[in-house]
Amino acid sequence: MSRTAKICSVIVIGIWLLMALAPSVLAPGDPLAINPAQAFAKPGLAHFFGTDESGRDIYTRVIHGAGDSLAIGLAATALGMGLAIVLGTMAALSPRWLDEIILRVLEALYAIPSLLMALLIIAFTGPGVGPAIVAVGLSTAPGYARLVRSQIRSLKNSEMLEAATVLGHGTWLKVRNHLIPNALKPLLALVTLGIGQAVIWAAALSFLGLGTPPPAPEWGAMLSAGRTYLHLAWWMSLFPGLAIVAVAVSATLIGRALGGKVKSL
Amino acid sequence: MSEQTLVTVKNLSVSFGATPAVKNISFDLKVGKVLALVGESGSGKSVTARSLLGLSGGTVTAKALEICGHDALGLSDRAWQKIRGNSVAMILQDALMALDPLRPVGREISDGLKEHTDLSAKVRKQRVIHVLESVRMPEPELRAKQRSTELSGGMRQRALIAQALAGNPQVVIADEATTALDSQLTALVLSQLRALKDQGRGVLMISHDLAQVAHLADDIAVMKNGEILEFGPTDQVLNRPEHDYTRKLLQAVPSGVPRFASLTATPPSRQVAPVAKAAKSHIDPLALVASNLSKSFGKHVAVDAVSFELPQGKTLGIVGESGSGKTTTARMVLGLQKPDSGTVDLLGERFAPKSEPERNQLREQMGAIYQNPLGSFDPRYSVGELLADALSRGKTKRVDNYPSAARQLLEQVELSNDLLSRSPRELSGGQRQRLAIARALAPKPKVLVLDEPVSALDVSIQATVLDLLDRIQLETGTSYLFISHDLSVIEHMSDFVAVMHQGKVVEQGGTVAIFGAPQEKYTQQLLTAMPRLR
């Protein structure tokens, strides 16, 4: 990872964290404050990104929305990865018949487009932040699980594991100390890419009205609200959209930088 | 000068950036002579050889560098191409890596001819067959059409040599051409090199092992740190070495050195302190018993009814060529592979076949050392963490929990305590193997299974590791199951020897009996192929 790439990633992560954890530092206003007199104000000095149909400041809402969007992205990826570790490890270490069964189920799930699966899950659970996390998390799990499985399978036959067996380490200790950490290391880059993807899907669900309920400042929901007024207030859709793109792009870049680092090890 | 000189090197220096690799060395290579460059890795011997092919990759300066009458100083890449293959050729180390697995070996061999000559395809084909015949390849017409992966190890080695000879070079460089080959392949390569010498070519042999070159070389140059320390006729260098370093290299060769005699001590002390008998135990006098172990993979029988006994505090050497079933046997003994039939008993208790939880208590009694220690370490762990992991049976990697035990282990293998926080990747090959030994000793095992523990090491480093193993055995009474393809190492380290061939133990008994008066034809063959110094 080059020095510049490293510095850039740290700065980008810092900005996102600041937006998510302390949005008031960047945007001291109230994201929910209504001011009908200022409705549909154009972007300018008073309102950097303009205002929406109720006169809420878009800039403030975009900044405050980062927390929810990123939290959904992170939580969903964590859920998907956690599930994947359990399933993938189980498949890799099971007797062949069980491995085959888990694998077939994963392949069947993998064949369904993730967003479609998320919609399916929401159809059962009903809309909301929690369901959106679960839906996105579950729909990404099969892909990760297959990777974890293949990583663990190749590590399982390594001399490193044999050495641990000969030293008398129990199965659980081998899994915890050697298999999972070494299997996850190369997946780190992929997970970072996955966070960006999860943010997009979470926004997509909200856009469809199935994620964060209004009036919370969620990027997907804001995009959806802006769609109605696209012809007279383009800024309502543009800025939340740019925020989503920015998160996805920076996650991709950081993931790539990490990927390079992993390869050089 | 009565003899014709093929290569003249005067004051050759090679450097990489500011780092000198070869410093001011001079030598000649004459027609029909074999010159050996001997030294440890990093001594500059390979760089020297490669600079004769224009492949050193560094900055080359010399007063004179003449190859078969060509002045080879400051040549362009194109000019070097004319010399390579035609005047000088190199036999590479690893036949499997050096030959393209997707092309027939005949095509590989004729590539050089295509590049350097105007011969028609038909003539080239004849030349290829001819050259394969000259290295005594069986059925050369058939072999030329096969890919390297379809050939046996011996045939692959012959193809590799044929490839070097295709352009009829006057000078042949063999860079560690026998390293890591088992004894029969080594003998094959050595006899081929002898044939080259007899044909009047000049041969430059590069090796870290004096025993490998002893019978073939006319002159030996001992290199260290880029300089030639000693240069002279073979007889003089081997029997009346002038330099301490040469003596050290000679002493490091294990063949013919009695059990427990040091390979490194100066002055050489061949006297052995009487063994401090391991505390008299009331348990079984046999540390390890394998009876009728068999294992097949599909139709291939890897191990066929192998039985042996390892008494406490002794060493049983298992020797055989690659593919003879040594490693599969070791894996079954270690309980890593379930035998199709047969049993393994450790200290009088059944060890295999048994389920892992059932033999968990016995696990501490048996340790393992591998050829490539780095592969057996978790890459995320430091030296200290590896030791703590072993000492706690995986419960923790915090070395703070075992400060004295970890230090003691490092002391036992003569490694410095400063290494605790380092990564094993930063250690040298010898240090890594010492660390692997320290880790295996953590649970205080009664038996150590060593699978080719020194095969990846230079002879001089190998000597220090073998001495260490000797010392540990004397101090702790640990029994060793020592697996190697190297007869001289087995002879030096073992009390008993089992010779394996095609999955079977063809002969076993005391080391002196096996090496002195082998009964089986196969054992006799192996022994005659063994390069010896003493």
Radius of gyration of chain A: 22 Å
| Main beta sheet of chain A | none
Q: Regarding CATH, which class of chain A? A: Mainly Alpha
N- and C-termini, Cα separation of chain A: 11 Å
What CATH calls the topology of chain A is MetI-like fold
Order of helices and strands of chain A: HHHHHHHHHHH
Quick one: CATH class of the largest domain in chain B? Alpha Beta
CATH-defined topology of the largest domain in chain B: Rossmann fold
Arithmetic mean pLDDT of chain A? 84
User: How confident is the prediction overall: mean pLDDT of chain B?
Assistant: 88
Helix/strand-derived category of chain A reads mainly alpha
- For the CA atoms, what is the radius of gyration of chain B? 25 Å
Specify the CATH architecture of chain A. Answer: Orthogonal Bundle
- Poorly predicted runs of chain A are none
* Total number of beta strands of chain B: 21
Strand residue content of chain B: 15-25%
Structural shape of chain B: globular
Helix tally of chain B? 20
Secondary-structure map with pairings?
The complex is a heterodimer of chains A (265) and B (534).
Chain A: H1 3-21, H2 23-26, H3 58-93, H4 96-111, H5 114-125, H6 129-156, H7 159-166, H8 171-184, H9 188-207, H10 219-228, H11 235-264
Helix pairs in contact in A: 1-3, 1-11, 3-4, 3-6, 3-9, 3-11, 4-6, 5-6, 6-8, 6-9, 7-8, 9-10, 9-11, 10-11
Chain B: E1 5-16, E2 19-30, E3 34-38, H1 45-51, E4 59-61, E5 64-67, E6 70-71, H2 77-83, E7 88-91, H3 95-98, H4 105-116, H5 121-134, H6 140-144, H7 153-165, E8 171-175, H8 183-198, E9 202-207, H9 210-214, E10 219-224, E11 227-233, H10 234-239, H11 244-252, E12 286-297, E13 300-311, E14 315-319, H12 326-333, E15 341-346, E16 349-352, H13 360-363, E17 366-369, H14 383-391, H15 403-412, H16 429-441, E18 447-451, H17 459-476, E19 479-484, H18 487-493, E20 496-501, E21 504-510, H19 511-516, H20 521-528
Parallel strand pairs in B: 3-9, 3-10, 7-8, 8-9, 14-19, 14-20, 17-18, 18-19
Antiparallel strand pairs in B: 1-2, 1-4, 1-5, 5-6, 10-11, 12-13, 12-15, 15-16, 20-21
